[in-house]
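debug: dumping io for the single-chain case to check the tokenizer round-trip. Nothing else runs in this session.
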Amino acid sequence: MTHKEFRGVFPYLVSPIDERGRVRDAVLTRLVNDLIGAGVHGLTPLGSTGEFAYLNREQRHRIVEVVVQATRRRVPVVAGVAATTIADAVEQVKAYEALGVDGILGILEAYFPLTEDGVVAYFTAAANATALPVVLYTNPQFQRSDLTLPAIERLAKVDNIRYLKDASSDTGRLLSIINAVGDRIRVFSASAHIPACVMLIGGVGWMAGPACVVPRQSVQLYDLCRAGKWEEAMRLQRSLWRINRVFAKYNLAACIKGGLELQGYEVGAPLSPQTPLSEAGRGEIKRILCDLGALETASVAG
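debug: decoded output
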């Protein structure tokens, strides 16, 4: 796929793994097809909702392979690359490019704290390993070494680093990033932000797990924002925000997988030692999905 500007709704896909550690290819393929049918603009395997930190190399590779094959070039696939070393990151970038992905989501895992120079060196090396567009991923809640604004400004000078997905929940930080590098790096929201608000200040969409369970509603919200119908958009956003709040209350992967199980996708439990969704959490998600019409849509699409 020739690179076109990434924008719109990119669900962070779950990683369906069976009890023997094998990827559930058929389940993942069905989810990909249904999400594309719902109108999403791209797909992101191995994001946070994809539990990348709990998967081995073979599982990660197979997930990307299945998603690329199932997508059949209908929408761009932006695969997550997460590593603690530059060598590992470069190896993953090249492997996923060979599988046919359309972009890379760069994630930095760190045990020891890194200097700004170290952070910049990591993302620069990953980007230089490919001609594909790169999305920087910043999530200060979970990452030991975060991307500061000065680091982002430096990385904006790398030709194929073109996007940033921010999960800080600090919308003021997003506006600062857009003001500083908005002509070179486009910003995607995360579920930690209010997507409509991010669109209002200049964002180009959102990459987030909740879009897996409410894809049609997410696309509708994006379309309203793009059309500048802000009053309608905020009515829908207020309704959808309930799902973000319940996901913040429980384990993210457990919530998305629990919601998908309710919709008929046998994606399995979150990978150990994460705790499966409680009955209370399952009931809460079920009520919200019913209110949003998401369970009805899934049963028809299934």
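debug: round-trip ok. The longest helix spans residues 230-249.
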